[in-house]
Every structure is written in C-alpha cells, then in structure tokens.
Design a protein that fits this description.
The complex is a heterodimer of chains A (about 400) and B (about 270). With about 400 residues, chain A is mainly α. Chain A has 2 domains: about 60 residues; about 300 residues, no CATH class. Chain A has 16 helices and 6 strands. In chain A, helix 5 runs antiparallel to helix 13. Chain A is globular. The relative contact order of chain A is 0.13. Chain B has 2 domains: about 170 residues, P-loop containing nucleotide triphosphate hydrolases (Rossmann fold); about 60 residues, no CATH class. In chain B, a hairpin with a 2-residue loop joins strand 1 and strand 2. In chain B, the strands form 2 sheets. Chain B has a 6-stranded mixed β-sheet, sandwiched between helices. Chain B is α/β, with parallel strands linked by helices and about 270 residues long. Classes of the chains: A mainly alpha (about 400), B alpha/beta (about 270). At the A-B interface, helix 10, helix 11, helix 12, helix 13 and strand 5 of A face helix 2, helix 3, helix 4 and helix 5 of B.
Chain lengths: ~400, ~270
C-alpha cells in the first residue's frame, strides 16, 4: 500500500472514531444550567489518537499480511525465543539458575511474596492439567474450575466430618476430581467444539450453584473455615513457616506435574490424544477408541485440578463457592492459550505472567481487565499459537538405529 | 492379462445383501461382494452410486440397515462385524483411507504413522509415566516399524516434517502408510488417485501392486481413474444408484453393455 493510501485510510478511521464517540465524549448536557457543553478538546484527542494508532496498525499488520515471505520473517524473533530454550547450551544454565532462584526465593523475599509465588505455581499446575484436555486432546473445557472445587471441598468436608489430614486427603481429592471428570465425560462423549464448551461451562456452574445452595452439605455461601494447613511430621508451624513449607511443596508438585505431562505427551497415550484433536474420524479409523481416549483426557487433566483444590483449601484455610466462579476457569484457560497449547514452558510463562503481573501492578488494578482483554486481542492477532509453540519430538535415523531427540520439554 | 489369477483364495471379506437407508432414502440396495486373499478388487460407479457409503458401512462408520458383513482374517476365524465400533474393526484388520485425505496435519510424518501402530501396542498411562523397560521397547518398536513402512512408501526423507507441509501426492501416500501401520489384511482405498497427476497415478499403480506382492494383503479400492482401475485390479464391481450392476474381470466389465451404458459412456470402448 502506498503512503497516500495509508494516510487516507488512517484519516477515514479517525473520522469514523470521532463520529462514533461524538455523542458520549464531546456533547455533555448540563442538566443543572440547562446548557450543552461542547468538549472540542476531547474530539481533537480522539482524532489524533485514532489517526496515529491506525497508522501504526497498518504498518504492523500490513507487514504481516503483506507477502508470505515477509510473514515468516515477522514471526522469526518470537520463534527464536522458543528455539533458544531448546538449545542445550542455554537450557542447562537457565534451568540451574531457575532452580537456584526457586530454592532461595523464600529467604530472599518476604512471606507475602512467597505466598504470591505459591499461587502462581498452583496456576502452573492447573494450566498444565487443563493443557492435557485443551492443548493435547483439543477438548475445549470451560468448567475446569469445577474439579478444582471438588478438590477443595473434599479436603474441607473430609476434615470437618472425619478429621482427615492434609496428606490423606491430597490423593483422595485428586481421585474424587478424576471420578467427577469421568462422570462428566460420559454424557459429553459425543460432543466437541462449541457444544462441548457450553456443556462444560454449564457443569462448572452447576457445581458452584450446588455448593452455594445446598446448605446442609456445603454450608452454602458462608463456606467452611478453620481448615488446617499441611503439617510437617507433626511439627507445629506458624504462619510464616507454613507458607514457606507450602511453597516448597508446590515446587515439588510443579516438578512432578511437568514430568508427568512431558512423559504423557511423548507417549502412545499422548499421541492418541493429539490425534483425537487433529482429526476425530481418522483417529477412529486408526484403531483408537474415541470414547476411552476422551474420558482419559478428562480424567488425566482433572486430577491436577483436584490436587490443587486440596492445596488451595490448605493454603487459604477457608473455602467458599465464590472462589470457584467461571472467571477462574477463564483465567486458567487464558494461561493455556496465552502460553501456548501443548507446551510446558509456555504454560509456565503464561501462569507467571497472568498471576504475577496483576499482583505487582496493583496500582493499575482498575484497568486490569482492560489490559487483560487488550493483551489477549493482540496475542490472537500477532501470535495465535501462544508464547511458546508445542514442540514435536523428532527422530534421526542412521542405518537402522534410532536416536530419539526430544526438544523443549 | 496374466494377472487374472485362478487362485482359489480364501474368502476374507464377505458382504451379503447389504442395504443402507438414510431416512427414506435407500443408499445401498442388497449389495453382495466377496473379496479373497491376494485380490485387488475395484469398486467403480458414477458419483453418488453409493461406493463411499458402502465403505463406511464395512468400516463401521455407519451401521447397515440390513444384511451381513463377515470378515475372516487369513487363517483366522470368520466373524460378523455389523455394528462393531470403527476402532474395533480396524484392530480386526480392516484399514482404510479417506476420499479427502485425513492425515493429522500438525503431527510429523512419522507420528502420523505411529498413530497407526496404536491398536497394535498397549502401553497405558502408568507405562507412559514410569517409562519402564517394556514401554521403552514397545516405543522403539513402534518407531522402527513406522520408519520401515515410511521407507517402503518412499517417504523416509520426510519423517520429521509436519504432515501439513507435504505436497498432495505424498500426503496421500502418507495416508496409505498410516493405514498399513495397523497391519491390515484388507486395505480399503477410497479414491486414492483423486487429484493426482498422471505421473503420481503411475507411481500409485506400482505401489498398490507392490503392497499386494510384498505385504501379502488384499485391496479393495474405489476409483474413478479408469486407467488405474483397469491396470491394477483383477476384479471389478460396478455400482449405480446403490445397486450392484455388474461384476467380473476387467475384460468382462469392459465388454458389459450395461456398464458401458450406465457409466463408461457409448464411445469409451477403448
């Protein structure tokens, strides 16, 4: 596009914006003095702002849609970031540094910071769990938070009624969430895409509404309090040490999740899940049991939510239905989408970005949702595959022998 | 044609009086078909004759309204497969390709074929996580077998490429490779030559014959390319409006008045 054309387009855009915003931003009816104020300055700002934005937009966007050769170039830097993590010479030191930093974190920063970091780690696990369902198997699940709630309430209720401790309930919570996932899985086996999304969304809401309204069972909106924090060999921990303890516990769980996720992804089961995402019909024709594989995806993904639910209950020592709204599901889904479907590193980065940034940018908390939305829109336009793309395992064949080389775990 | 073997092979697929209704529309009307070991059978007919519907019935995508389908793996037991699930039929030894190629676009070429090995392997979740010796061995075997198949199909240099980046002809070959990975005794190809140029069709021709001679499998194919059909198949079944109108060797089909009228047209008596 020539410069003239672009200017013309930008002018048109700004005129359009001025026209659209004119009634709300320019005219103000002063009802007390019965006069109309004309805020021409506002109009100037809108005109100038939209003009410049439009120019910038066409500059970047034009480059993207321009010609295919250039397109790949525009994507190159971002993909380089991905391949940098795959480079073993960078990878090892980076991993060691991260490990050292993670170990030293509670001693370097305050308990408050540690607590925030624990939350972020929890979302890493939740993101990876959902990544099995959405990223690998391609089943859009908008009710993931329901399984999180199942985990949290199983700890709260089992402790309340039977006095069971954290370490007993942790596996039980995971198991119960798996069970619920299979229960949900059965009716939705035939669905996919939008229909599945709507049903899972409904399921999430049903669980929350049950918790909110069935007072005899879940104590309604007032929730359950006085849930004990996890104990360490019978020692009595104060709030600070308990927070630090939980932090290390989460680091451990995170590592386990990453390990398990990676192993599942690079296995026969993982391949079946990915094939299910790619083409359901061809997948069946290849001898993969669709129903079983879908249930497996739900079960494998939801277990993590159940575990995190137990941790959540132990961390806050209080659960009520307000913690398990749709917004929470959307948050976890955003982590997966922003980070990159099927990718581990992507989800880790996504979780840290989406959980930590809002914490540290409290000053802008009024604009949080606005920024969130803008970031998402920009991501979808410029990098729809997420920060880090899921990486495929590659093999080298030399005279019959196989070298399996896995990259970017 | 010397290919017309008098081979009194075993019957491996037997379809009897197969009918399929969609609502009030009868798509298939009492089709009989027998495929024997070592046979290449072609299914031809004008568009909408019900060929693909027939395929879908046999492979379990549709449940036939009436009739029976029996399979008998060479040396195995005869079994009725009506109404079995698709994946079950595949693991019994019937593999198919699709009219519009259905490869897994975002998986590598090798992974595509590895998926085909799914029903011949059994590692579960626990095996995946623990990655014990048995799982590792099985995994290595899957990779090796898949690579062998790809090498046979002439796709060895493409193993690590994403399937969506393959040119059309290779994508179709990949689909056949993937089907072969399920170790079928009968391979069903739905218009394998559709959209191929003459050179690619010639290669496909060789490939189909090689599959039979080297792998010892039978092939049932739907095809519109008459040259391909006439050169590879030893038996041809002609369908029109959901009915079988003729069956026989290529020569017989070529001479059949009814087929010429219904399908080949008046002057294609080549």
């Amino acid at each position: 596009m020539t410069f003239r054309q672009e200017m013309k387009k930008a002018l048109l855009t700004s005129a359009w914006f001025v026209f659209l915003t004119f009634p709300i931003l320019v005219i103000r009816v002063n009802t007390i003095e019965n006069v109309i104020e004309w805020r021409w300055l506002n109009m100037m700002w809108i005109a100038a702002g939209s003009f410049i934005l439009s120019l910038l937009w066409s500059f970047y966007f034009g480059r993207k849609t321009g010609d295919p050769g250039k397109k790949t170039e525009a994507f190159a830097p971002a993909d380089k970031a991905g391949s940098l993590f795959r480079n073993p010479r960078f990878r090892m030191p980076a991993l060691v540094l991260t490990a050292l930093f993670a170990t030293a974190f509670p001693f370097l920063f305050s308990v408050y910071q540690t607590s925030i970091m624990t939350t972020a780690l929890m979302y890493v696990v939740l993101g990876l769990g959902l990544n099995i369902i959405v990223g690998l198997a391609g089943l859009l699940n908008l009710g993931y938070v329901a399984f999180y709630a199942v985990g949290a309430y199983s700890y709260a209720l089992l402790h309340y009624h039977f006095g069971l401790g954290f370490w007993v309930v942790l596996p039980l919570g995971g198991l119960l969430a798996t069970l619920f996932a299979i229960l949900l899985g059965f009716p939705v086996l035939r669905l996919r895409g939008d229909y599945l999304a709507i049903v899972t969304l409904g399921f999430g809401e049903i669980v929350r509404l049950i918790l909110e309204n069935w007072n005899e069972f879940s104590f309604g909106p007032s929730g359950i309090s006085n849930i004990p924090r996890p104990g360490l060999l019978g020692l009595d921990l104060n709030l600070d040490t308990a927070t630090i303890y939980l932090y290390y516990l989460m680091i451990g769980l995170c590592l386990i999740t990453i390990f398990v996720f990676g192993r599942i992804r690079d296995s026969r089961i993982g391949r079946a899940l990915i094939a299910l995402r790619e083409d359901e019909i061809a997948c069946q024709a290849m001898g993969i049991d669709k129903a079983r594989t879908k249930l497996l995806a739900f079960a494998l993904g939801s277990t993590w939510a159940g575990l995190m639910g137990v941790i959540f209950a132990a961390k806050t020592t209080f659960v009520n239905p307000a913690s398990f709204t749709f917004l929470e599901s959307a948050m976890i889904l955003s982590i997966v989408v922003l980070g990159g479907m099927g990718s581990i590193l992507g989800v880790v980065l996504g979780a840290f970005l989406l959980i930590l940034l809002p914490e540290y940018l409290r000053a802008f908390s009024d604009y949080r949702m606005l920024l969130f939305g803008t970031t998402m829109v920009i991501m979808m336009i410029f990098r729809p595959q997420g920060i880090i793309t899921g990486i495929r395992r590659t093999y080298q064949f030399r005279g019959g022998s196989i070298d399996g080389a896995t990259a970017g775990k | 044609m010397e290919r017309q073997q008098e081979n009194k092979g075993e019957t491996i697929l037997e379809v009897r009086r197969l009918s399929m209704d969609f609502g009030g529309i009868r798509a298939l009307e009492g089709i009989d078909l027998v495929v024997q070991t070592d046979q290449i059978m072609a299914l031809i007919g004008p568009n909408g004759a019900g060929k693909t519907t027939f395929f879908n019935c046999i492979t379990g995508f549709y449940e036939p309204t009436a009739g029976d389908i029996f399979i008998a793996p060479p040396g195995g037991k005869r079994k009725r497969i009506n109404g079995l699930k698709v994946d079950r039929i595949t693991s019994l030894g019937l593999a198919r390709t699709f009219q519009n190629t259905r490869i897994f676009p975002n998986m590598t070429v090798l992974e595509n074929v590895m998926i085909g090995r799914h029903c011949r392997s059994k590692a579960g979740v626990l095996g995946a996580v623990l990655r014990g010796r048995e799982t590792l061995r099985e995994e290595a075997e899957i990779v090796e077998r898949s690579y062998e198949i790809l090498a046979k199909m002439g796709l060895a240099s493409r193993v690590n490429e994403l399937a969506k980046n393959l040119p059309y002809g290779e994508a179709r070959r990949l689909e056949i490779a993937r089907a072969m990975a399920t170790e079928p005794f009968l391979l069903m190809l739905d218009e394998p030559a559709a959209g191929m140029n003459p050179q690619e069709t010639k290669e496909l021709d060789d490939l189909i014959l090689r599959l039979r001679s080297e792998e010892g499998i039978s092939i049932l194919l739907i095809e519109h390319d008459m040259r391909l059909v006439m050169s590879v198949s030893d038996h041809i079944c002609v369908m029109d409006y959901g009915e079988k109108i003729a069956e026989g060797t290529p020569q017989e089909i070529r001479r059949s008045e009814r087929v010429i009228k219904a399908y080949l047209g008046e002057d294609s008596d080549a």
